Amino acid sequence: MGKLRDVRRKLAKRRVTGSCRISRRQEEFFRIRQFRRVYDRSSGKFRFQISYETHTPLTQRTLAVAEAFGLGVDEAQRFTVLDTELRIGPRDVVYVTGDSGSGKSILLRAIRADLGEEAVDLSEVQVDPDKPIIETVGASVEEGLELLSRVGLNDAFLFLRTYSQLSDGQKYRYRIAKLIESGKQWWLMDEFAACLDRDTAKIIAFNLQKIARQQGKAVIVATTHTDLFEDLRPSVHVHKRFGSEISVKYYPNVQATECSLVREMCLVEGSLEDWRRLAGFHYRSHKATAPRRIFCLKRGDELCGVIVYCYPPPACFGRRIVLPKLSMKELNEKLSTISRVVVHPKYRSIGLGAKLIRESLPLVGTPYVELIAVMARYSPFAERAGMCKIAEQSPHKQALAVAEVLRSLGFNLQLLGSEKYVLSRLQALSSGDLEKVKEAFCRNNHLRFMKHFFTHRVFGSKKDYADAVKVASVERLAHLIKICGFLLQSKVYLFWSGQSEPSPNLVRIGLFSACSLHMVK
């Protein structure tokens, strides 16, 4: 303390006499000099010898500190940060860990500089904050949906949001989708998933390594967190300590096939209350008609996913390909329909949809199970669970006929799923045009249209249906148009058989062995 008091007195005296003179050279701050960095492309080896040369700026305070502690500040000091050799190939997954300030970012910047145009850093990804994300990824709708689904942005509502409307975790996933879209061979990410909770970080790490290995790309991530090893499954692990100390370990380049969080989940019997808790995350509706069995995936007391099995409808496309004609009683005894599958947004893209189906199929209590899904066109989760894709249905002709009338009246067919939009369009129509809409529904009496008016009985006559349409309110007509929008979608019919003995239809089309319980892994 006495030394510091002496320093203060001297500085006070200098301020009075103006004796503290600092040259231009002395005012320079830290200067960084890179001494050697070599990348041998033929061997895939990076050789780094990186040092820092520093000059301390001479100010009244730095002089005070130097004098108080006996430090020299008028000479350059050199610090070695990296002195190592790394073997990294264009398909490796590299995990760089270490404390903040240990030199991880320096290492990534050095690698990035050597790779040039072959690499892209996550920080370089350009985003448009004001357009729906489906507009900004992929060359087509299908490609965009596939890219977004791969990184866990596979909620129908998310596709329509802008980047600025996403959460931090969703933004991070979106930027990875753009990274994949770049087509670059090397993907670099500093401060990897640092702003995310650890569960989300593990899910993103698992998906990143899976996609990179499937596409034959290299990934290099740097982070202070050491809890991602199992999900990232690196082929090269670099642990950077302070100074020049560094540890490098090499492992087989093998894909992690299951996220570590999945092993913490178990399937249990569920209830309608469980479905209602996650219903808001489903793109269709909160309703689950006539549930037969409900199962949940739980991680401790956390609800991760729900699957709802219902009694089958009287008829649907694809069914006659695999089953003979059955009475309604026989259908209810032998067949269940998967009505809803929903996974909590936090846990999407780690295979929980497939896990829900695969583990619940043998428990539902019927020898056959069917699934009709739009999302199955873009994400084959049901096929991964052991179901067989039987047929793909084009839009219904009755729905197409109604859609043509709506188009002629100025409706945007892509917005038919929005009752708010449809209602505003209907209210703007003249009475004559409104009659044209009603007449189109009367002529095209699809079963789904009729069901809307006869909810308390299975069938209603065509005359009763036409009479109901003619007096329908604008609000009810808007809902009917929304149903038409659903019928315009292309759907996939999938089937599963748990019977030990094949049905004749399955044998005839050669699908029994694939659909049998023994094939559900």
Kindly describe this structure.
- This protein has 4 domains: 2-81, no CATH class; 86-250, Rossmann fold (3-Layer(aba) Sandwich), CATH 3.40.50; 262-393 and 491-519, Aminopeptidase, CATH 3.40.630.30; 397-487, no CATH class.
- 33% of the residues are buried.
- It is elongated.
- It is built from 21 helices and 16 strands.
- The chain starts with a helix and ends in a 6-residue tail after the last helix.
- It has 521 residues and is an alpha/beta fold.
- The protein has helices spanning 2-17, 60-69, 104-115, 141-150, 156-159, 168-181, 198-215, 229-232, 272-279, 319-322, 328-334, 352-360, 381-384, 397-408, 419-428, 431-443, 447-453, 462-470, 474-487, 504-509, 512-515; strands spanning 36-40, 45-54, 77-87, 93-98, 119-121, 186-189, 218-223, 236-240, 246-250, 266-269, 291-299, 302-310, 335-343, 368-373, 388-393, 491-497.
- A 7-stranded mixed β-sheet has the order 10-11-12-13-14-16-15, sandwiched between helices. The chain has a 6-stranded mixed β-sheet with strand order 5-6-7-4-8-9, with helices on both faces. The chain has a 3-stranded antiparallel β-sheet with strand order 1-2-3, covered by helices on one side.
List keywords for this structure.
20% strand; alpha/beta; Aminopeptidase; 521 residues
SSE arrangement:
Elements: H1 2-17, E1 36-40, E2 45-54, H2 60-69, E3 77-87, E4 93-98, H3 104-115, E5 119-121, H4 141-150, H5 156-159, H6 168-181, E6 186-189, H7 198-215, E7 218-223, H8 229-232, E8 236-240, E9 246-250, E10 266-269, H9 272-279, E11 291-299, E12 302-310, H10 319-322, H11 328-334, E13 335-343, H12 352-360, E14 368-373, H13 381-384, E15 388-393, H14 397-408, H15 419-428, H16 431-443, H17 447-453, H18 462-470, H19 474-487, E16 491-497, H20 504-509, H21 512-515
Parallel strand pairs: 4-7, 4-8, 5-6, 6-7, 13-14
Antiparallel strand pairs: 1-2, 2-3, 8-9, 10-11, 11-12, 12-13, 14-16, 15-16
